[in-house]
Design a protein that fits this description.
- The protein has 324 residues and is an alpha+beta fold.
- It folds into three domains: 2-59, Winged helix-like DNA-binding domain superfamily/Winged helix DNA-binding domain (Arc Repressor Mutant, subunit A); 66-267, Bira Bifunctional Protein, Domain 2 (BirA Bifunctional Protein, domain 2, 2-Layer Sandwich); 275-319, SH3 type barrels (Roll).
- 28% of the residues lie in helices and 29% in strands.
- The chain has eight helices and 14 strands.
- The strands form three sheets. The protein has a seven-stranded mixed sheet with strand order 3-4-5-9-8-7-6, sandwiched between helices. It has a five-stranded antiparallel sheet with strand order 13-12-11-10-14. A two-stranded antiparallel ribbon has the order 1-2.
- Helix 2 (19-26) packs across helix 3 (30-42) and helix 6 crosses helix 7 (234-255).
- The protein is elongated, with a radius of gyration of 21 Å.
- The chain starts with a helix and ends in a 5-residue tail after the last strand.
- It binds biotin.
- Residues 90-92, 113, 116-119, 122, 124, 126, 133-135, 176, 186-188, 204-206 line the site of biotin.
Length: 324
């Protein structure tokens, strides 16, 4: 109900909305409206209330709440349903567990994760309010072997979104987003599927937005948007990502068109033309990246001077000298 009230106030942003209007619209009593407004103010929303005039929203706290995300979000189905938590173990875990109950495009977002997960079973630090910890639930009619491409769509949409906000970011194929040679964001795509049918895909995106101090073990490779000198609201980044993601995702799902996504991945690649290390389990080999092909696979020249194609999801990459 609180979310509904915030939505009404946001829809009428520059005006006072009477308690009577809200109570009629939502089918609740005037005193219930007053109680909810009090709670909403306690959450940090700045609302001016004047007797006989009503309530006017002046400002929202830096929360990724359902009402704030849904308000003015320019998408057809991504993020039209938002599940917001103050704290949760992992948004990916919750999304996977509940995927069958939610519609295509539902997002699960939390202010904090207590067991955030990265790739290869690594921990993902997800401090309260410091970043964007979100999972997108998708139910595409594609074959399971095509699912890795969704990670590239996510990567392309993140750099596009950051670009829209004047943040210069690149992609370390296939799922790390880099600002000034350090990782600012990562993608964890997980699949619920049968042999030839996808039940759901969960695309988990973690982005460090305001983090300043990182644990010792990742200090040298991790950064945040703020740490790199950009002061941008989490909500603006998240909405941009959802909008850019939907465009590229629909291109792919409806038209089987990967070209825009691949163009962005190539233009914004942090590794094309460079020597890198490919890490696969205990094995580490030095190769040169020469292309991302029309399938989204990384084309390399391997240690025997042969051309080889790598499918995302198979490998980890490190730069020749540094992280990238
Ligand atoms: C990586 O770079 O290793 C991937 C990191 C993915 C982190 C996100 S945060 C939201 C979602 N929930 C999780 O537990 N992980 C992903």
């Amino acid at each position: 109900m609180r979310s509904e009230i915030i939505k009404i106030l946001l829809e009428n942003k520059d005006e006072f909305v009477s308690g009577e209007y809200i109570s009629e619209k939502l089918g609740i009593t005037r005193s219930a409206v007053s109680k909810h407004i009090k709670n909403i103010k306690n959450q940090g929303y700045n609302i001016e209330s004047i007797t006989k005039k009503g309530h006017k929203i002046i400002g929202c706290p830096d929360l990724l709440s359902t009402a704030v995300i849904e308000h003015d979000l320019n998408t057809k189905f991504i993020g039209k349903e938002v599940i917001h938590f103050d704290t949760i173990g992992s948004t990916n875990d919750y999304a996977k567990k509940s995927a069958t109950d939610f519609i295509d495009g539902t997002i699960v977002v939390s202010e904090e994760q207590t067991s955030g997960r990265g790739r290869r079973g690594k921990e993902w630090h997800s401090i309260k309010g410091d970043g964007i910890w979100v999972s997108i639930i998708l139910k595409p009619d594609i074959y399971p072997h095509n699912a890795p491409f969704i990670t590239q769509i996510a990567g392309a949409s993140i750099v596009k979104a950051l670009g829209n906000l004047k943040i210069d970011a690149s992609i370390k194929w296939p799922n790390d987003i880099i600002v000034n040679n350090k990782k600012v964001s990562g993608i964890l795509t997980e699949l619920g599927a049968e042999i030839d049918k996808i039940n759901y895909i969960v695309v988990g995106i973690g982005m460090n937005v305001k983090t300043i101090d990182f644990p010792d073990e990742i200090q040298s490779v991790a950064t945040s948007i703020l740490k790199e000198g950009y002061s941008v609201k989490r909500i603006d980044i998240l909405k941009n990502i959802l909008e850019e993601f939907e465009k590229l995702y629909l291109n792919y799902i409806q038209e089987n068109d990967k070209s825009n996504c691949i163009m962005i991945c190539k233009e914004r690649s942090a590794i094309l033309g460079k020597n890198i290390y490919i890490i696969n389990g205990d094995k580490r080999r030095k190769v040169k990246c020469i292309d991302i092909n029309e399938e989204g696979n990384l084309v390399i020249i391997n240690e025997n001077n042969d051309i080889e194609e790598l499918i995302s999801g198979e490998v980890s990459i490190r730069g020749e000298h540094n992280y990238v």
